[in-house]
């Protein structure tokens, strides 16, 4: 069941943000009029291919880069005009851990707490609280260089929460983590959301967006091309997908080339065989599923299982994230490095 945000009041509001680099013929637009908002206690996930503009947006919203045009505010404070106030309300966890490997976990947190203005005694108390909360108390006095990737990531997020932010930026926080560490980090992110923190998450992992996001925004070429809850994004994408598992690959190939095209009146290219599984877009929904099973039964092809479901986020991402701006199909753009590697 999808999470429902605690309040509709927006913490982050982005309105028609543009970002470009260079001038004249060398001018490169990275963001082209992006608008979005995030309420308190909600997670918005940005998805997109490399170069879509995700990291550029996070860099601007965290006051580290000026927009070319448009506005954005955090709790009513403008990111340009009120940058100092905005920085007091946000925290950023980037793609790479910012902690010092030559210090212990506890020393790292005390250091960051002192930077945020806490007294020495208050910094030690806050460090111990965070170490306990992030399940790092047993490793508190170990050098961070000896930590696993998952432990470092938890410590990195703990450091960003020395002072509880109203808005937390997580830029691909689980890249390179093993499956168990990823799930542990997901649990922590959900706890932060439940505490009322608004979170902007960028990720390349579709299962991560499916698990965590209340709202997904799919970026392509600097623009939003889809927005909604994971279920809404899938439903906007198109018809249901029918998948049929047969006894053999030979049966699957025959189903795709002959049996199903004849019964459903679709070209053979509409059907795909992967191993024992045949899949196709079922514009007719359950009727198409029933007709397909009937056709295979009449042809003495045994159906071991049959499913009908909305497209997965993988289907949506692969179909939409890589299309060129002219809509000419899948076109992955290489080396889009005008300040945005993600």
Automatic annotation (TrEMBL):
GO biological process, one term: response to antibiotic
SUPFAM superfamilies hit by this protein: P-loop containing nucleoside triphosphate hydrolases
Keyword Transport in record: yes
Stored SMART domains: AAA
InterPro entries per UniProt: AAA+_ATPase (IPR003593), ABC_transporter-like_ATP-bd (IPR003439), ABC_transporter-like_CS (IPR017871), ABC_transporter_ATP-binding (IPR050763), P-loop_NTPase (IPR027417)
Subcellular location: Cell membrane
All copies of domain ABC transporter, residue ranges: 12-246
Protein name per Swiss-Prot or TrEMBL: ATP-binding cassette domain-containing protein
GO molecular function: ATP binding; ATP hydrolysis activity
Keyword Signal: no
Topology within the bilayer: Peripheral membrane protein
Natural source organism: Bifidobacterium tibiigranuli
Keywords: Antibiotic resistance, ATP-binding, Nucleotide-binding, Transport
A Pfam family reported for this protein in Swiss-Prot or TrEMBL: ABC_tran
GO cellular component: plasma membrane
